[in-house]
Fold these 2 entries.
Entry 1:
Amino acid sequence: MHTSPAKLLILIALSLVILVEGRTVLAFFGINIPPLETALIGLVIIATLVIWAIRPLRGSPTKSE
Amino acid sequence: MTALFVDEYPAEARLVKAAFLSSFIAFGIGALFGIIQALHRTDIFRFIDSIKYYTVLTGHGVFLVIAFTIFFLVGLYQWAVTDSLERGPVDIRFTWFWYGLMAIGSFLAAISILAGFLEQPPMVLGAELRANVLFTFYAPLEANPLYYIGLALFLVGTWLAGIDWFRTWWAWRDENPGERIPLRTFMVLTTMMMFFLGSVGVIVSILVFILPWSLEITESLNPLLTRTLFWFFGHMIVYFWLLPAYLLWYSVLPKLSGGRLFSDPLARVVFILFVLLSTPVGIHHQYMDPGIAEGFKFIAMTNTMFLLLPSFLTAFTVVASMEHGARQRGGEGRFNWLQALPWRNPAFTGMALAGLVFAFGGFTGIVNAGMNINYLVHNALWIPGHIHAQVGTATALTLMAGSYWLVPQLTGNRLVGRQVALFQVVLWFVGIVFMTNSMFRAGLVGVPRRTAEPQYQGFEYDVPVGSMGELNAQLALGGTLLFISAMLFLVLMLLTVFNNDSEPIVDGTLPPALSGPEDSPQVLDNLRLWFGIAFALVVLAYALPLAGIVAQSGLFGQDIPPFPVSSEAVMYLEFGLDYVGALVT
Ligand code: HEM
Ligand SMILES: [Cu+2]
């Protein structure tokens, strides 16, 4: 584990929040991301975070927090 | 570990529990109504008549921002006074008396609202029992007198609660001459001074004008006057919702972060600023009202901008205390200390996320408060967006998080489902951002609030990004997440209450501040002085506008009969509109 489950949960929540609000901010500059793509980006972010989090630490393969 | 609150003060703990119970019942019904609204107004799932939408909306407003918040406040404040003065009330029967008044009052108001769902509401006090007037009850919309009687009893109960806490403090002062007011008691007393001053408006409005008029003792009233008296109270009340959350942020959050409050004097200054400034700003809710001169609106706007100061002070003090705590726990670096905070603890995480949303929501409040830009968002869905970020999250989420810390100490039971609790507070955070983001965006293109069917024939909203369909879906999705989160919270509370044979794992002691009361100038504790200044500011801000309103159309207005809000009335109105429409086309 690269981080604790609690922090992973909060990181996922924060990235969803930044995604939703960030999309709104970008729209003010004429950059429009359609809903479907936004959802896809969200999924990719969540998947990346999860994979990063559960990837075993190098050197200490079994140690978890 | 010290003794639990329930072991030290069993009688007081019982009252706090009763207040929390009332609060949580109101929260449950309010949340149910919330999801109904979210699904109804977006036309995703409509299972009630659109006319009943206003009954639901009245219930949502009253149950959440009157009952849920204020019952929690009186419970929390009773805990704070007892725990920080280390003594109970002078006479606990009086304490139960005010709680009883509040409970009866909210029961009366609740049944008059809920009777609106009946096909044939019974006749009470000479009128049909119903109260579809929303929580602002603007005349000439009229509710059954029972609704106003209920509100009045509730307010009187809250007044007596404040008097009770002052009495407790006076008794403590006699026993401890020359000592500084303990911080939490200071916060309670200043909040109540603010409430005494600001609630005068709504009490006069109900008792002198609206109740007699609904009982047909007086024939007419002046709607602009009752409305202005409501908002005399209406901005103060938002701080009445917020200050319990502040009390938790200042006293409990630093401890949860592993440290101590940064500064006791700053905390006192913040609460005094709220006493001074929270009432003479109410007219900022009336920028669009004719009959109030622009100059007074400008003064209200200026005062409002000053109110940013205590919120910025709070952001500084609370974040500084959190950083101190994180460094005590071994956190290092410019931002890396954030990682050392106890994110696994739902009480901590809930409060921290609530604070984050509060900061964001505060900026939307600056938009509302600007006289010119207010015209863009007035009565648009933007406003419920702001409401849910502030009272709906800064307050509601902090209170839920605080319950995870406090309820085990009140019951002596271990919190059930810590991990679920963490998920619950995070879910609320995500849900609120989805829902309010949609509300803000919809509000900017003119989608109205307080409307069961905000779609019109032959007219499309000019949504710059995406579509109305997308905004609606996002609002309903956010609302659903919030509803699930609310239900999770209530289930966890219920399970905790019945988790009898367990030991709580909380430590209820609160460490002293880094810069303690000895660093606060003595004058900060001179409550008479601050109340006097606050009173003078209110007179300055309100004497002339009120005089102007009365001079224009009299204390009791001119021939303003009630407009009872019933299905028939709406039918007449629809008929009237059709008729006018036919005449015009
Ligand atoms: C279960 C979560 C909730 C949902 C789904 C929800 C949904 C809604 C919706 C859709 C509206 C707009 C109705 C309209 O203008 O037509 C609304 C209004 C409002 N909500 Fe909520 N809400 C929730 C929780 C809360 C909480 C926790 C609070 C406060 C503690 C709150 C306070 C309010 C207030 C004051 C209004 C304005 C009422 C009025 O215009 O008279 N809501 N809510
Ligand atoms: Cu206000």
Entry 2:
Amino acid sequence: MGIHIDVHVCNGCGTAEEAMCVRDCPGDLIVLGPDRRARIRDNRACWDCAACVKVCPTQAITMQLPPEISLRGVRLRGRALRHKTVWRLRLRDGTERAYETPSTGRPPHDPNL
Amino acid sequence: MTGESIEIAADLLIVGGGAAGCMAAVEARERAPDLDVVVMEKAHVYRSGCLAAGISALNAYIHEGESPESFLRFVRRDVHDVVRDDLVLGMARELNAQVHRVESWGLPIPRDERGLPVRRGRASVKIFGERIKPLLGKRAEASGARILNRVYATGLALRRGRVVGAYGLHARTGAFVAVRARATLVCTGGAAGLYRPSNPGSGAHRMWYCPYNTGAGLAMGIRAGAEMTSFEFRFVPLRIKDVIAPTGEVAQWLGARQINALGEPYLETRYAHLGGEKMATQDRLWATLQERRAGRGPCYLDLRGVPPRRLEGTIAAYLSMAPDAAMLMADEAFYARRDGTMAPIEIVGGEPHVVGGHGLAGYWIDERRRTTLPGLWAAGDVAGGCPKKYASGAWAEAVIAVRDMIEAARAGGAVEIDEEDAERERQRALRPLESKDGLPPAAFEERMQKILEEYAGGASRDYGCSGAELEIARLHLERLAAELDALQARDPYELMLAHEVIDRIDVARQLVEHMAHRRETRWHCYHERLDYPERDDARWLCFVNSIRRADGTIEIVERPVERVALDARLPSLVDGAALVRSGG
Ligand SMILES: Cc1cc2nc3c(=O)[nH]c(=O)nc-3n(C[C@H](O)[C@H](O)[C@H](O)COP(=O)(O)OP(=O)(O)OC[C@H]3O[C@@H](n4cnc5c(N)ncnc54)[C@H](O)[C@@H]3O)c2cc1C
Ligand code: SF4
Ligand code: SF4
């Protein structure tokens, strides 16, 4: 299924020369419409890499497993911050779980790794 | 705009701004600040190629107690001896320096209590790699190299048999771009999407390899007559079913073993003769298929009894590399909480790929990473003969290549684009836009995938095929190639899709010739000749290489395997504990 872009949340990245999701998609799948709202050309061509999900400043993009794999399944949102990425997974029953992954810099020493 | 032509001059041209390409740009500018370096990248260097989603390990590294020689021994064993010792050793000697270079740029590499990188396996380092591609891309940008994002290469620029740069098209405008360069590095990755995808419908591109790496660099070389090696060594990943994600996160975090439907750790109980847990990568996949054939399938990663809360670390790890797998595991944990029991996670083989970073397939190169075409070097997944290089090996190869390219560029004189050559390529590249009442790229893609799937050992055929089937594949691919004048693109985006399929058909045709030539089964699943099911060292301990001639015929040549003598006293990677397969 790939991604879903909420056109009511997307602001076309304001006045940025190139919208962030349009810039970062490795398959060049996202375009801005004449209304300056992002849309995906073809979800079948999406690799589900989540690059667009993380980079979107308004968090307008959610990712879902293809329905062929899990019907409604889980929804994913995320945001890349400077030293970490924060994520939210929304489960089938509507509950949400938050996660964080480190991005750059010296990781803390963790004997359980 | 479409119809516009742009010419750019460079000293060094890097085609593909992925793992290898970004490192090559940095190395070139640091070593030779006086040289103009241009990177031609299909997407945007911040999130292009295999590393787009992130990765969780660097799978080629020389840990304490190991050596380049012990690494070579491990590689030799895993690929059953057909390997370029010189390439592997040269790469292995560069690995650690490049890993720590990227660490110094900000890649988080956790350390143990002695300050050493945490092991993921005998030759693998754990990293927090969600941001690895933006990190590399920004370094490449900051190096002063000129980066042409959204320009995808279609062909090598040739002048009197020498490579003098490359041609490309702008993905958004369709403008024709010619870059002339004294030395050109091709690093566009391997070829995905040759076979029918694992998932139907809207999951079609949820495949293992980056679906936007469609073998462009290989196809450009094939069309220019470069010698290619070992395409028949296809790489097939053994992965978590449906999401085609690495199993390492589950095995590593949760200590899950591979079991069959009877609950047996089958690698140990039934395939000890192949090495059990330590068997070669392809044999693991083969053993998993055998279990199914014997009625003991499917096979799983055993998570029974694991409390769902313990999955949280795995979910976080997957988020930074395979977000689909994170969603799948979160869903499994949800059901486990509801049902009171965790189900095992099914594993299967994915689609076969032509990829030199995991397997052997790619350009035939020398130690300096020179291809057989003067003026052209190759590194990373596009280069052959040197398997198990992964991301860190791609960096190592890029650095080795660039050092030689700088010398060659300094020694050689100025180069010019051959106007006739450029015009021929421009017309070829833009032709799908002129085609009327033709067929869309998807039609050609599906036809090609169907042919390879059914006649050249796709997943649905358990990866096996016979010489007679390959003969049919050859015939149908020939017919398909002859129909390419009907390939139609209506806009610049479709033109890119058109080139993706043109390139893959060229790769597919070469692949079938390789598979037809090697009449043995050395690497189960990767090259499974049902009519020659045995490994035959007396006849086939050699490389199968190919060259496409100007008239379109594909000539096969065999090259000997040359051994570098290793000191028998050196420790061998495979003598020790089981490797944790972090997969990649
Ligand atoms: C899902 C996945 C997980 C992996 N995990 C790991 C891991 O954990 N650890 C590890 O060490 N390795 C891992 N690997 C392997 C590693 O990512 C690759 O070996 C490495 O990225 C290869 O580098 P490359 O530069 O050859 O290819 P890439 O990094 O893919 O770069 C190729 C570049 O070429 C560009 N390109 C493609 N076509 C064209 C064209 N026509 N013109 C211009 N540019 C073009 C692409 O956009 C891309 O930027 C993984 C690979 C995959 C697919
Ligand atoms: S998930 Fe990745 S491939 Fe899919 S639209 Fe977003 S950036 Fe593109
Ligand atoms: S990044 Fe977000 S806000 Fe910007 S164009 Fe894309 S969806 Fe809209």
